[in-house]
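Complex 435.
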Amino acid sequence: MSRIPFSPITINWTLTFRCNFNCRHCYSRPEKAQELPTEQVKEIMAKVARYKVPFINYGGGEPLLRGDLFDLTGYATGLGFNVSMNTNGFLMTEDKAALARESGFRTVGISIDSTKAEVHDDFRNTKGSHKKAVSAAKFLKEQGVRLTISSVICRINHMEFEDLVRQARDMGAEQISLHNYKCAGMGFANKDELDLTPAEWKEFYLKAIALREKVTDIRISMDDPITATIHKAPEQAIVKGSTCGKLSLNIRANGDVTPCGFIPVVIGNLLKDDLKDLWDNSNILEKMRNKKPKEKCLTCKHYEDCLGGCTARAYATTGDFNSPDPHCWMAK
Amino acid sequence: MRNIRRNPDIIWREEEEARDEVLRAMARGDDASGDGTVLLVESGMMHQLNLLGGEIWKLLDGIDEERLVDTLAMIFDVDRDTLSRDVRDFLVDIDKRGWLVHE
Ligand code: SF4
Ligand code: SF4
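Predicted structure with iron/sulfur cluster bound:
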């Protein structure tokens, strides 16, 4: 690997922890934090822009619940950021889709976890949510906003991911992200019911990687370091292992900074701290960038590429960044 | 001769600290020609360019190939034929990837 970039490439930003949904896998439902007013969010955006961070992605909570979402986005794009968001789509209207275009969203991602409306609605605990997500995608496409689809892979859909890819392509999405299940927040509480076994993860990734190589009319993205065991990282991979704390950081609704949305360890707050100072000097980031093999990773031939897999999952289940990823299917 | 520009869909950033380090390594006589000095993101994939690639990339603001080589000749201490060939190879490669716009 070459060196860590001089500042993050992507800031994942939770503008609000509020949500109109109550999904069974959500990492952020148990999170609470004071939400910053518009001017303070802008103040942080201006500070981050000094370090030429190219991408901001709003995660959730549900970004459309913030009344100032398009004002903030217009401000951010004016500072040079490429802005995207993940939304459940429920509150998207034709007017809001037009505002998404006008404020300069580079892409908008809609979450859809099943091609079957009743399965999606049940998983997301909201009746009618599949239908609304499909209309949200249509409104955005009509406005010429670039569309992506996000699906959290888990027990309800791991056997039908090919249908999810087809559905996303038919909706006109340019990318589908097949997110690995995170044992954080509600995801941790519901992991026995929803998470796959390591053998099932292996089977899923083997099939999904084969499909990704075949499909040309939509990009399939799977950002999971554990896949280093079945294929070499592409030549252009800038860093190995988890990318959090190496290419990206997470900002919470109150300005707190964590290495990633799934690692609830606060390394500073951007109302008072300097982004570059945190990026260069945080002990936590230093530990995540220089993991030490432990247990079965000690003798694993994939360690150099995998670096123990997903740091968030390891930390959520054992409290130690260096533990082997619980999704890892390699024998002990 | 046609002018060449970067494809505006590609998001990129110069890695100033990495570039300084490469220049220091070169001044010491170490080989740092493979280290990235420019990061770019295209269709969700991240790539890095080495010093020569990065310097070419930064100059692709609507410039023709000859002027490009002239400018690079002021930075890189190599004979003109080698430089022209390296520039050509790089441009052909990134053109194939769809990273250029010809005016
Ligand atoms: S630790 Fe895991 S969840 Fe967090 S960004 Fe890295 S890969 Fe993703
Ligand atoms: S044993 Fe460790 S290094 Fe090897 S694949 Fe599993 S998590 Fe990755």
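The beta strands of chain A are 10-14, 55-59, 82-87, 107-111, 146-152, 175-179, 219-221, 248-251, 256-258, 268-269.
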